[in-house]
Each structure stands twice: as structure tokens, then as C-alpha cells.
User: What shape does this take?
Amino acid sequence: MNKKTIRDIPEGELRGKRVLVRVDFNVPLDENRNITDDTRIVESLPTIKYLVERGAKVILVSHLGRPKGKPKDELRMDPIARRLEELLGRKVVKVDDCIGEEVKRAVAQLKDGDVLLLENIRFYPEEEANDENFARALAELADIYVNDAFGAAHRAHASTAGVARFLPAYAGFLMEKELEALGEKLNNPVRPFLAILGGAKVSSKIGVLRKLLEKVDVLLVGGGMSYTFIKAMGYEVGKSLLEEAMIEEARGILEAAKARGVRFELPEDFVVAPEGKEGVETKIVDWDKIPPDMGGYDIGPKTVEKFGRYIREARTIFWNGPLGLFEVDLFARGTIEIARKVAESGAVVVVGGGDTVAAIKKAGVEDKITHISTGGGASLEFVEGRPLPGVEVLLDK
Ligand code: ADP
Ligand code: MG
Assistant: This one.
């Protein structure tokens, strides 16, 4: 890592200092505002505890959902403050704003080691606009800035990037862990290096596909995006997901894989049905025999077997994108079986993408994965090799 982390701040210099930490507490809530998955809060604990134990006054800030620049009661940070309190085992003061007099008073009352959580930062349109005055007002609350919000690091917002213009800026431990896993582990992989790509669309994964072709030995493609490749090879895909506008691009990728000597594998068979929903009649067909009145919603058993052989041989695996419509139990099997095989592979396994992580959890194998990224879009942009604004602004080592 070429960026300074909080470990680079001399320990004595944290005592009594006000440290503004951008965290990613954008957790899923149910209709009663109960947190359904607190992974992102749990993952931020090492940074918070490190600062608390060294006597810093910790000021946390995050976004939650998409309030579109206006206060929304259902997106206030209160349930998160309560969960954080349980997890930390210490009081977390919650304020109902992010800047201004009330917040300044609360900060002034903090004692060494206290923790304060600000309100949802996206209640202000200035956040996403990366407004300079707003960033300055945030910076005025603190002496040091820490970015631990990897999941928001691909955005140049006031709290993820702008604020670093006014304060010395360091990476937190989660940020460091993410950059190491998605950076070093994939850039200097133990070989064979295998990537599994799935998900709905080729269009949202073009950059990642092209970048991975430069790095991997084997690329397995499944899920909704595989049909555009099959069409590009001149076969019909029935009612399966197809991006007409991406057929040429898909052809280009097949050629690039060949030119680079990368093994590019598509499914051998599919689970097809008249519709992608629970309770319909399904059948298994070979990849080149999808009936015109049916669509493919999962990979079939021959594909699981074939992909499984590559997975067993791999020493590094990167996975993004479910291999079928896994939210529907009827079509979750292929993704879940592949998740189990990946978990048992003994390889270094790095998983990114919001839906892929959900699929890993549905398979119940999250404990056996080397690194599960907390960043959906951020993890993909980083693997693509795009600079992340929230990382660029941090102090160089
Ligand atoms: P991630 O969030 O992990 O990056 P994506 O958002 O790209 O993944 O894709 C996930 C979505 O793709 C899921 O909602 C899944 O149901 C859908 N999907 C995967 N395979 C198919 C398929 N064969 N037909 C329709 N949808 C699919
Ligand atoms: Mg997704």
C-alpha cells in the first residue's frame, strides 16, 4: 500500500485529537428499520477501536440509502448508532445533523476515547456535489481525517474526498484490507489465476472483463451475461437476457481472450423455463439448444462439473456476478454449488459485488472466503484499474 494508514500516525499524537472517520454504514434495513446485515459496521470496528484505545475523539460520518439531498426520517442513522453501541460495548452519541452549531457543541463535549455519530451525510445535496464550503465545514469539526469507507471510495463526494483538502488524510484498516486484497492479491496472483464473472449484464462488466483478460489464466463466464456471448458465437438464446448492443463487444472479448491465450469458458448447459419465477416448469438443455419460447435462468449440472474442475486447480480466484437468477430458489442451485466449490478450493478467494456477496451468504460459505469486499461498485472500479477518488486524496507513504 502506498498510502498512509492510521498506523503511520505516531501513537501519542492521537490522544485528545478529534478524528473524523468516513465509514460505510450503508447497511440494509427492513421495513421496521431493523438492520438485516451489519457486516459493514462490524468491519469498521478495528479502526474505531484503534482510535478509541489511543484516546482520540472519534467522529463518525456515513451515508445511508438514497435520501437525495433531503432529510428523511426513515434514513436517519439512529438504528446504526444503537447497533454500533452494542458491538463496541461503549456509548455512541448520535447527533441529528452533520455540520453546524449543535454538532460543534457535541464535539466540544467529547472526552478522549468518546465516539460520536453524525447524521446521514446525504441529507445535504452538497455532499454528492462535493461542495467546497460544505467539505470545509465538515473539516472544521476535526484535526485528522480517516477514510475507512471503501464502499464509497469510487465517489468524489465531500466526505469521501473533498474534506481531505483541509485535513491530513489517512486510510483506515478496512480501506487498507480492501486495497490489499483487491490490489496486491490480484495483481501478483499465485497461479493459476481464475476469474468467475456472471451477473445480469455484459455492459456493466466490460471494463472488468477486459482488465481481467490481462491478468487471468482462466475466465469462466455464466449468468445473464453469458447469452450475449452465445449469441455472438451465432447461436439463439430464446427468451434469455440478451444485450443486442453488446454482441459486437462480446465478439471482441472472445477474440482478445484467444489472442492472449486465456481459457475462456462459457456454460455447457442451462436450466431453462418459460419465465424466471418460482413454481414454473424447468428443464435442462445444452447451451446451443435453448428453445425459442424459454429463457436460461441458471447454469446446468454439466457446467457446474466443468467449472468445478477449473476451480479445483486454481490457486487464486476472483468472483463477481451470480451465475443465475439466484434470488429465486428454483434458479439458485448453480450459483450455490459453485460457491461451495470455491469455498472448498483452498485457493486465495476474493469476492466482490453486492449480489455476489449476497449469493455467498445464501450458500452459507462466507467464513471460508479469503476476502469478501464490502464495496460493490467500488470493488469493480478498482479491479478495472480506475483510480478511486477516496483513495487518491490520502497522504502518500
Ligand atoms: P453484482 O452485484 O455481484 O456485481 P450484478 O448486479 O452484475 O452482480 O448481477 C446480479 C444480478 O444478475 C442478480 O440479480 C441475478 O439474479 C442476475 N442474473 C444472473 N443470472 C441471470 C440470468 N440467467 N437471468 C436473469 N438474471 C440473472
Ligand atoms: Mg448488483
